[in-house]
């Protein structure tokens, strides 16, 4: 249990426990959201097929391609085995031989039947072989229709590509300090009507000494912009109204502070709403630092954004 002993403060913003659905005691230890934006929650499935579609349209491309190739190979192997069991002599145009030779010929006939290519040099003979070939053609139509649907879902699924700084900074701001992080739109397409929310989740103790988890939406200097073309530094002023006013670095660690970032905007390419999430914990906060510039002007006078420098910062000398 965390040893944070600071009593609850009177904060203008209202806690968001109910809206987030996490209650007050679920995440008093550990982090609620992983750095990649996925929630640190395990949902028990009701059935085996609950999340198959979501998994297939969201896994990495190389995993999806390998999975499709594995399914294609397995299906061909099953039907090639069926043809061998019926008898390779029932495939007109084949030359019976060893098991490996027979299986190879049956496998390539199966791949031609499954894809409905049908080169014609091998054809089925007999009732059982024709039934097997008909069933395979039927499964081939269903399989490729399914794959086509998944490909469309993967290409049409709106996904935001926003690069975040690895750290949050406590940086000079006006006459005081502010909590900052930076993000850049990594896609060529523009994001319009982009909106950001920053939520603080933190442990606090009540008068009875019990620790609970509370959530506060942190006010931002600018939380919505019309066009997200350049870099955007999100700023929360650490003034008297801030829930973090007077906190030290150790206070954030002791209270298991976590900052949840939610970004939502409209992709002007397909006019679809995209969103992404990011999480920072107390150990990700760098004190008394500032971000280095990521914008430059090329020889043609056009602004360039160095996406790879989104997290570059420098620690300031103590005054």
Question: Can you walk me through this structure?
Answer:
- This protein has helices spanning 17-20, 52-58, 61-86, 99-114, 127-156, 249-254; strands at residues 91-92, 123-124, 162-164, 168-173, 176-185, 191-205, 211-217, 224-228, 231-237, 258-267, 272-281, 285-287, 289-291, 295-297, 303-305, 313-315.
- Residues 1-14 have low confidence and may be disordered.
- Strands 3, 4, 5, 9 and 12 form a five-stranded mixed beta sheet that branches. Strands 6, 7, 8, 10 and 11 form a five-stranded antiparallel beta sheet that branches.
- The chain is of the alpha+beta class and 319 residues long.
**CATH-defined architecture of the largest domain:** Sandwich
Terminus-to-terminus distance: 36 Å
CATH class of the largest domain: Mainly Beta
The major sheet is characterized as: 5 strands, mixed
For this structure, what is the CATH homologous superfamily of the largest domain?
A: G protein-activated inward rectifier potassium channel 1
Structural class: alpha+beta
- Percent of residues in helices comes to 25-40%
The oligomerization state is: single chain
* Coarse morphology: elongated
String of helices and strands: HHHEHEHEEEEEEEHEEEEEEE
Tell how many strands the DSSP assignment holds: 16
Low-pLDDT runs: 1-14
Rg result: 29 Å
Tell me the number of helical segments per DSSP (H or I, 4 or more residues long).
Answer: 6
Whole-number total of structural domains: 2
The mean pLDDT is 82
Structure summary:
The protein has 319 residues and is an alpha+beta fold. The protein folds into 2 domains: 17-40 and 159-315, Sandwich (Immunoglobulin-like), CATH 2.60.40; 52-156, Orthogonal Bundle (Helix Hairpins), CATH 1.10.287.
